[in-house]
Design brief:
alpha+beta; 13 strands; globular; two-stranded antiparallel sheet; nine-stranded mixed beta sheet; 2 domains
Amino acid sequence: MRLRRLRRVGWVLLGSLALLGARWWVRPTPQAAPASGATPERAAAEETSTADHTKFEILQQPFRTGPEVTKACLSCHTEAAKQVMATTHWTWVYQPPTSNEVWGKRYDINNFCVAIVSNWPRCTSCHVGYGWKDDSFDFDNETAVDCLVCHDTTGTYKKFPAGAGHPAYEPKEFPPGSGKIWEPPDLSYVAQHVGRTSRRTCGACHFYGGGGDGVKHGDMDSTLAEPPKDVDVHMSPEGAGLTCGDCHKPQAHAIPGSRYVMVAKDTHGKDLPESDGFPTSCESCHGLRPHELGKLNDHVDRVACQTCHIPAFARGKRPTKLWWDWSVAGDKARGKETDEHGWEVYNYMKGEFRWGKNVVPVYRWFNGQMDVMTLGERIDPDKPVYINEPHGDARDPNSRIYPFKEFRGKQGYDPEYKLLLVPHLFPFHPDDTTAFWKGFDWGPAFEVGMKTAGLPYSGRYDWIETTMYWPITHMVAPAEQALKCQACHTRQGRLAALAETIYIPAQSGHPWLDPIGWTLTGLTLLGVGIHAGLRMVGRRRS
């Protein structure tokens, strides 16, 4: 009788533990992720234009230049240029909220094409304006704002690669000697067919950063204009069908989203990107507990959504550049070389490259803040040189494990002044042999570049390796392609580089924790065995 009662108590305890376990492992959530795919409600809510620009007489004229089009636009959109001119897209200047430094493309240095100073006409082909060909550019000239580059819907408007932001106004060859002719767009036709921004218009610059398709970011290339669902579940027409502006919701032409200061950990939760002043994040749509499995939600406070849901970057049709060595540029005898994939691995104008597709990110603790190197900042050649570096720490409650593209390169520096050097690459005029892409001599190229930047130059140069980190946040895969538990919870898993900062079950080893765990497991099994033996003895006696 007593034994039967003990058995009943045991079964009750076992059942209770099972129910608790089920509650723990399969915990319902009130903020489950929305189903993939654009809903009929969303499609019905899409706003349509209230204006037919083909009927505006002011646009029914032949335009000779881009600024003439802008002047016509401003006759109706009177405040548009002023709004654009207050944004980083116009100024290329960024003021970080946590310091008095001044960042932005105007002042930063990188390990791709290095700096815009002395190379303006080439670099500013991705400026939202016309005519930034030198440091005398008038940032207060409203007609210098380029409306068409963001609002073209025809796909025929393109800035000329070396035109300081202008399109071609007559047929032009580029690159020189290539035979590729850039035809002038029909500016009147484009002006009459303007509309909302799109993945293509944003991508006209952002997909091609660093000098080519997919070169710079790793998670952005021309594939994203019409991506398959397995490349980007949000932007794909087969998925949510989102445009860039759905997440980067503009307000008075100011577009949120910055690689300088990011939202690495959103504690606001659902607050859809409707210009509320808080930058869009995954949590803005998916909430703070997006998973049906409760145990997965326990990771959210320490692991960024992108870490699991972007298993690799450069998953589209284009590779991304991972290494750029300027030190070997200038060898015209080598000319251009490609590898077995047809990817360019040497170009006498730029040096040697390494590329990658389906690249596994590197992972760092990240709280949204970056250190950024600017022109004139001294380096220590005896230590690793980071062009930028993410802030974060396992002990920081605002930090999460975040994926990055790690880009490395070799570029010039002054061993006396200990400064990264600004190369003058693009010629000021057709006979400018001081430009490296004209004279192929680093000495005068560095001298003119540093002089133009207002920085000292000793006349000596050497080469040094540098590293840059690019946050990975696009190319989100469908849920079924997200990382599985064993990607991290295994020996030498994806987060092995962070093993000294945090204990990860099944990956991290510990000189005393593992033995204690195995000892406790053994003692538990021993206790179960003793208990079973005592029960058997007790049963025989009864």
